[in-house]
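Entry 14: structure prediction run for Alpha/beta fold hydrolase. Input pasted below.
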Amino acid sequence: MNTSPASPVTWKNVPTRTVSAGGVQFAYRELGTENRGTPLVCLIHLAAVLDNWDPRVIDGLAARHRVIAFDNRGVGASSGVPAASMEEMAHDAISFIQAMGLKQVDLFGFSMGGMVAQEIVQMAPQLVRKMIITGTGPAGGEGISQVARVTYLDMLRGWLTFQDPKQFLFFTRTPAGIRAGKEFLLRLKERTEGRDKAITVAALQAQLKALRLWGNKAPTDLSKIHHPVLVANGDNDRMVPSQNTHDLAQRLPNSELVIYPDSGHGAVFQFHADFVARALVFLAR
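Run finished. Output tokens:
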């Protein structure tokens, strides 16, 4: 008889569940449910599904917090028609949070998810306690309307070199950046069973439209957002130029800024140990 203890639940093996909200079956995963305090809801990046979250980041945050990540409407295993604006994605996220029975949450938004987080906190300020937004920028930010162009170019670059486009989109081409990208991509493959469905071309096109709209949108008065915000990025982000991160930190009155050296869009994955430590301190403060 096998009496060995069950394997601990981690991002590698946590089951995918669903919850119904607004006629949509949202696929989600959650860790750290034994932890008290404000739950942390994660908002994913362009073209991503649940399997695109870095296990080191999610497991690290879940060591002290209940962490919940979900697929956007029409993306991965979630049903429905993909949203084509940040506002629609924010409405969906609010519906999901409410369907989960959560009265107040912290938000962790990476890239496109950070844009959605900005919309959520303005639509439902009472729903949010704190925000962590990384690799992202404000509405109308420098270069954001060009994300589609950069994405397609690096998809072609990846195809021509037999590499994952994220190696180019998320990381610098320095030795440290190339190494970090390879390590990150290996971590994304650690989950071998119960993996999510890949994003469809239609969903990707809807998200690229949302990014174009966000990039061309008139700037928002972010001085009205008084929630504590941790803003982070690399010093050489090609997808959402790093100047946007500095701009966000200046325009958010209760923010703190972290810029990682020799890193790009995926800096928080490259420096995952430092980022998780900083995030935990920020959330506990």
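Notes: Residues 154 and 160 are 10 Å apart (CA to CA). Will compare against the previous run tomorrow.
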